Amino acid sequence: MMKFISETGLGFFFEEGDQFLEDVAKKAAELEGKVDEVLNSKEDIQDVTKLALYQPVFYCDDSTSMRYGTRARDQIRLVRRVARISTMLVPDDCGTGLQFINKKHALGDNLKATEVEQIMESVKPNGVTMIGTNLERKILKPLVYNVINRGDKLPRPVLVSCITDGCASHENESEFRDTIVRCLDFLKAHNYPPTTVRFQISQIGNDKAAEGFLNQLRDDPVLKDVLFCTTQRLDEEYKKLNENEQDLERWLLKTLMGPILSLGAQSKHA
């Protein structure tokens, strides 16, 4: 674990003997012996251990278009599962964050997977897709900017996983991109490593505008080291693998690991 931390610049947050790391390592050792847990291979445990280093935040689309078909239901099922995977090895007093594009919702960053599901079940899709504006207002400000501005240190790096079924609306077309760039600039100005906040964006549904939006982000050279764009449509792949629990869980883990594995690849070429 310390090798990965050193190679990826996360030593800013973690030192040898850190209690958080010891708790994660203990849970990882216990996971290896759990025959009823799908993600119990050596490779799976290594990935889940790396994932545990990050504070996960799921940023969900609750715009009106999420009413179409099974999009809202599919998103709930997906996020419930990835919330569980993200928090498998963290100490009991740590959890995941959850936020929505539209719903007025206080950002909880210590939720269990069951709590995530309950909150999502209560949300009725309604509104537009100000995905960039509210990424800054509802996630980055309370979780990153306000903490650093008041002189506190972020306890862990942050992984923001965004899910959307459309492209940005009712804001500048480049607002999502610009929000991420401003975050990088803020971190640099406050002497935090650029790896402090990682972003991932994934598509749900078959909207062509959403596909074009993600392709534009994927091709942006400024974002290549900080934003990971998932290539598969989440709901489509989920339904394809739903009958095979092992394949489904491993695909979800690999999807979550996308931004982290790309970070490891960058460090090898740095």
TrEMBL record:
Coiled coil: 21-48
Keywords in alphabetical order: Coiled coil
Name of protein: Uncharacterized protein
Species name: Trichoderma citrinoviride
